[in-house]
Specification:
single chain, about 170 residues, mainly alpha, about 75% helix, about 0% strand
């Protein structure tokens, strides 16, 4: 039963992620991203990580999506829709996407870190302390990398929303 729900949530997550990329309207992309975040949160609930599910909802859906929608409303959507990409400009991006996808698949299949293992039993009330210790000790570099990526997205959104002077 759990595997069926996982496959359902994962499939809907992939579909909504594709909708984020393929939608022409930025508001539709933002709504699809919210749906994708909800699916990821549901997967966290299936993995018995309710704290991560709540953090996913509060931080990403509550804060980041409000920021995205604010930026979308600041830029002139009609002008952005009229601007088109250069013809043939999507081919290098598609080739890069396929190469990165193949690389990720090879790394996941050859890695020992994704083997099936038993979940670690945690004592009651100690979950948050262990999460904090793991996050800031064992996974400090990925955590900081994610924060730099979010900062770059924020700067990019501000640059897109800023009107040209002159």
């Amino acid at each position: 039963m759990d595997q069926g729900f996982f496959l359902l949530f994962a499939a809907v997550s992939v579909i909504t992620a594709l909708t984020v990329v393929l939608a022409r309207n930025p508001v539709h992309s933002a709504l699809a991203l919210m749906a994708c975040f909800l699916q990821v949160s549901a997967i966290f609930v299936l993995l018995e990580a309710p704290l991560l599910a709540v953090i996913q909802i509060f931080v990403y859906i509550g804060a980041i999506m409000v920021l995205f929608l604010f930026v979308i409303m600041m830029i002139d959507v009609r002008e952005a829709v009229l601007q088109r990409f250069l013809p043939g400009g999507n081919l290098p991006a598609l080739v890069l996407l396929v190469l990165l996808g193949v690389e990720m698949l090879v790394l996941v299949l050859w890695s020992d870190r994704f083997s099936v293992m038993e979940p670690v039993a945690m004592r009651d009330g100690d979950d948050v302390r262990q999460l904090g210790t793991a996050l800031f000790a064992d996974y400090l570099l990925p955590f900081e990398t994610a924060s730099v990526i979010l900062l770059a997205a924020l700067v990019g959104a501000i640059m897109l929303a800023r009107k040209e002077q002159g």
